Amino acid sequence: MNTQSPLPAPGAPLQHYVSIAPFDLQSVEAMTPEQSKVFQASQLRLMWWKFRKHRLALISGIFLAVLYFGILISEFLAPYNLHTRNMDYIYSPPQQVHLFRNGEFVGPFVYGRQMKLDMDTLKRNYIENQDDVQRLRFFCKGDSYQFWGLIEGDRHFVCPAENGQLFLAGTDRLGRDVLSRMIYGARISLTIGLVGISFSFLLGIFIGGLAGYHGGIFDLVVQRIIEVLQSIPSIPLWLALAAIMPITWSPILIYFGITVILGLLDWTGLARAVRSKLLALREEDYVLAAQLMGAGSSRIIRRHLIPGFMSHLIATATLSIPGMILGETALSFLGLGLRAPITSWGILLTEARSVSVIAFYPWLLLPMLPVILVIMAFNFLGDGLRDAADPYK
Prior knowledge:
It is found in: Cell membrane. This protein is α+β, with helices and mostly antiparallel strands.
C-alpha cells in the first residue's frame, strides 16, 4: 500500500505547514503571573524574598535598626543627662513601673523611696513609700543637654515626676542613672563595630583581592603574614597594641585608636575569604574578555570580581561586627580601651569588677544585657543574610 502523499501538479502552489503568524513568546512559554514575577525579578529582590522567610533574622534586623536609630537621639531617649548625679540615691536599685493602684488604672508610675543606712553593713536600703505615687511624664522637659554636642535642648521622651525619681535600671556609686548611661554608651559600642568593620573590610578586600588575583610571591607573602597574625593570641595582642596609645591622647583619638586596633586584628579572615573566591572566579571567561579589552587589574577586581560575591562579603562582615563589639567591651573592661569621659558598655561594666559590688548591687551588671542581645541579633542577621546570598538554593 502506497502511503506517500501525491506530488502536486506542475505549477500548483506549494502547501505551507509552518505558521506565518508573528511569534509570541508569552503564548509559547505560557507562564503564570506568579512564574513571571519570579523569573523577571532582580537578584536583590530574590535575596529579599529569601531573607524575609528567615523570621528570626528579620526580627533581628528590625531590632538592630531600632537600636541604631536610637543612638541618633540618645539625648532625647535618656531620662537623665549623662553626668547627672543624684547624691541622695547612691546605689539605688531599679524601680518597678506600675499601671494600677488599688484596682484603679493610674497610668505609668513609680513609688517614691526613702533611704535608710544599715549601720552594721553600711549598706543603703531603699524602702518604697506606697503613699508617694509619682506618675511618669512623657515628651517633657528635664535635664539640659547638648544634642550631639551642638544644639542645646532639654526635651526627653520620659521624665520622672516633679521632684521625683526614675531609676529603671538603678544607679551607680555616684548616683548616676544606669539606664541613661546605657543609652549614651550604645552610641560608642554600636558605632565602633561599624567603623572597625569598614576599616577591616577595605583592608581585607584590597589585600585579599590582590593576593587571589595575581598569586605568586605576593600571595605567598600575604598568606605567611596572615598565618603569623592568626597564631598570636588575641588578648595579649590587644594589650600590646592598646599599650602603644599614649595616655595623653584625647577621648576621640582613643576611640579611633581602638577602632584601628580592632580593624587590624579582623582583616585576616576576610582577606582569606576574598582570596579563595578570586582564585575561582579569575578563571572565568568574562575575566579573560576584560583582560583582552585592556582592563587593568584594579578595574577587573573592582567591577567584575568583587560584585560576584558581594552578598557573601556582606554576610561575613555582619558576622564580624559582634567580635569587634566584644573586643571593645573587653578592652574597656580591663581598663586598656576607652576611658572617661567617653561612655560605652565596657566602661559601664568596670563598675562591677568587684565581687562585693556584684553581691550587693547586681544591677550594675545590666549593661551586659544589651551586649548579649546585640551580639545574638547580629549572629541571627548574618545567618539570614548568608542563606539569602544564594536565593536559588
